[in-house]
Design goal:
10 strands; about 45% helix; 2 domains; binds phenylalanine; single chain; BirA Bifunctional Protein, domain 2; three-stranded antiparallel β-sheet
């Protein structure tokens, strides 16, 4: 006999009735609130309430002294309490076992999730290849500003004040008079370099350029160029042609042929545009080269003596050549990219295709 039961025994049966009903109610509330966090905690709860010496078992002991006419009601309440406790314990057990199971399924020796590797942007890949191949024939890399004045983008490059070539470049102006603009080509770096360096100069200038053009599959208002400049004594058009042949064969393959067509740029004289034999059909004619067998790649020419003079380089003593190419177009030809806008959307499904590219 425990002390509680002893206490009940000394009371009148109707008092026990009230006390037991209150106690059952309070216990029912208490039990519905319990929330064991582990199987060990659950076992403690089971022992506390429904084991042989638990609170509910004690109440069943006390029940024996309840007056016979009140037994039915108290018995019912007691049974409900016992069922509630058993249900509670059983469901909690199920839940905790599932949790526990999950914990055991965790294989702590398994390798972690791999972190996906990034990839170089195709324009950077091609730019780096161009830098690398020119590096092998002695060209340094230099850069100039994207925000430029009229002098470096136009006037020093021999664009006459009212020359229509200025309009052809679809310039973005930031300010007018004096003009501040976004460079329309990397030729501004020719001036920047020649203004501060005397020949010999042999360098390439990769960079971003801007033109106010409608955006389509073939053109964008932002794109990238690589400019080349070689100024020294006795630099000839033959040097230009041989340099460009080397470039074309390094980039597009040793069987590549080049052809130079007369053209016009204010800052070169004579000027030319260079085509390479189509890398897809090898010159036989296909969709890519529009059945001409040739692909236009870059503009070039001998540096106009006026440009050398504008930079205080003696045009009697020195000659030079320059060339400029668009990286987007070359990348399109090398990798079969059909839409220039893909370069700027940064869709990983596009970018990841260049994972294994050189
Ligand atoms: N700057 C010219 C262009 O953007 C390309 C070029 C560079 C032509 C150097 C000749 C010499 O079209």
């Amino acid at each position: 006999m425990n002390s509680q039961t002893g206490f009940y025994l000394s009371l009148q049966p109707w008092n026990i009735y009230y006390i037991m009903l209150d106690k059952i109610k309070a216990l029912a509330e208490e039990i519905s609130r319990v929330k064991p966090k582990s199987l060990a905690e659950l076992d403690e709860i089971r022992i506390k309430y429904i084991s042989k010496k638990g609170i509910i078992s004690q109440l069943f002991d006390d029940f024996r002294v309840v007056a016979p006419e009140l037994k039915k009601e108290v018995g019912k309440a007691l049974n409900e309490l016992k069922n509630l406790a058993m249900d509670k314990i059983n469901t909690a057990k199920e839940e905790l076992e599932i949790q526990d199971q999950g914990a055991h399924d965790l294989d702590l020796s398994a390798p972690g999730d791999s972190i996906g590797l990034g990839s170089r942007h195709p324009l950077a890949l091609v730019r780096n290849r161009i830098i690398d191949l020119f590096g092998r024939i002695g060209y340094n890399v230099m850069e100039g500003p994207e925000i430029e004045d009229d002098w470096h983008n136009f006037t020093a490059l021999n664009f006459a004040a009212e020359h229509p070539a200025r309009d052809m470049q679809d310039t973005f102006f930031i300010e007018k008079n004096p003009d501040v603009l976004l460079r329309t080509h990397t030729s501004n770096v020719q001036i920047r370099v020649m203004e501060r360096t005397q020949p010999p100069i042999r360098a390439i200038f990769p960079g971003r350029v801007f033109r106010n053009e409608a955006i389509s599959a073939r053109s964008h208002c932002i794109f990238h160029q690589v400019e080349g400049l070689y100024v020294d004594e006795n630099v000839s058009f033959a040097d230009l042609k041989q340099t460009l042949l080397f470039f074309a064969q390094e980039l597009f393959g040793v069987d590549t042929k080049i052809r130079l067509r007369p053209s016009y740029f204010p800052f070169t004289e004579p000027s030319a545009e260079m085509d390479v034999s189509c890398s897809i059909c090898g010159g036989k004619g296909c969709n890519l080269c529009k059945y001409t067998g040739w692909l236009e790649i870059l503009g070039c020419g001998m540096v106009d003596p006026n440009v050398l003079d504008a930079c205080n380089i003696d045009s009697q003593k020195y000659t030079g050549f320059a060339f400029g190419m668009g990286i987007e177009r070359i990348t399109m030809l090398l990798y079969g990219v059909k839409d220039i806008r893909l370069y700027f959307e940064n869709d990983v499904r596009f970018l990841q295709q260049f994972r294994s590219a050189l």
